[in-house]
Amino acid sequence: MKKFILLTACLILPALTCAQTAEEKGLFIAIEADKHDTGWKDQSSNLRMTLHNRQGQESFREMHNQALEVEGDGDKTLIVFDLPQDVKGTAFLSFTHATRPDDQWLFLPALKRVKRISSSNKSGPFMGSEFAYEDISSQEIDKYTYKYLKDDTIDGNDTFVIERFPQYENSGYTRQIVWLDKIKYQPLKIDFYDRKNSLLKTLSYHDYKQYLDKFWRPGKMQMTNNQNGKSTTLIWKDYKFNNNFNDRDFDNNSLQRAR
């Protein structure tokens, strides 16, 4: 009801002026960001993951993924590993939900079985990277509560800075601070704080491009672990939309037939 009242008021009043408290303004900004990225239906892309250890050594993964926008719920995502050979065929399926724990599964070709990711283990590392399983999901509004902190500038880009607090009780984070571009309404930087409320990781976004004259997607994401000195880089390419995906492309059987 609170969200409905806020949205109704914002149809009448100029943008952001209707949010009186820091919490209301933070929620309003999150709603605007969601509105700016609604309606893409489905997408696919290729990506390269590079793992950097504290000594500067690197290892890589190559993947392809596809995603389906779900009306009234979170997105569905399928990620399939293509290289190197020891992880080829490994597939990850995620159903994001707004108000309950995400459903996630991992297909391990060496064992020829599908493993369900426990709802209490979403803070674990995704395939040895600095991304957690809970990071590999769409960021639905109701996953968090919000608070506006300030305006700021990153690399010449004006941003809103908001704080968001995970509603998920098993989250590995107490809070996240997000720098959101005022034009694109896409994140440029996120700081993640661990369960002791210490800065754990920083995620930065780079090389945004616009697709279908509306939707912005990054070309690069860098997750840096501020506590262990490791980092993971994702390079995204070959974004494609309107692939005519449906729910059958994201069921458990799709994990085993994915190539």
The number of domains: 1
Output the structural class.
mainly beta
The percent range for helix content is 10-25%
Helix count? 3
The number of strands is 15
General shape: globular
Instruction: Please tell me the CATH architecture by its name.
Output: Clam
Strand order, largest beta sheet: 6-5-4-3-2-1-15-14-11-10-9-8-7
Mean pLDDT: 91
Q: State which percent range the strand residues make up.
A: 35-45%
Radius of gyration: 18 Å
Spatial separation of the terminal alpha carbons:
45 Å
The largest sheet, given as strand count, sense and whether it forms a barrel, is: 13 strands, antiparallel
The CATH class is identified as: Mainly Beta
Give a concise summary.
This protein is mainly beta and 259 residues long.
Describe this structure in words.
The chain has 259 residues and is mainly beta. It has a single domain (2-257), classed as Lipoprotein localisation LolA/LolB/LppX (outer membrane lipoprotein receptor (LolB), chain A, Clam). The protein has three helices and 15 strands. The chain has helices spanning 2-12, 22-36, 252-257, and strands at residues 42-52, 58-68, 76-83, 91-95, 103-108, 113-116, 144-154, 157-166, 175-181, 187-193, 199-206, 209-211, 215-217, 220-225, 231-241. A 13-stranded antiparallel sheet has the order 6-5-4-3-2-1-15-14-11-10-9-8-7. A hairpin with a 7-residue loop joins strand 4 and strand 5. It is globular.
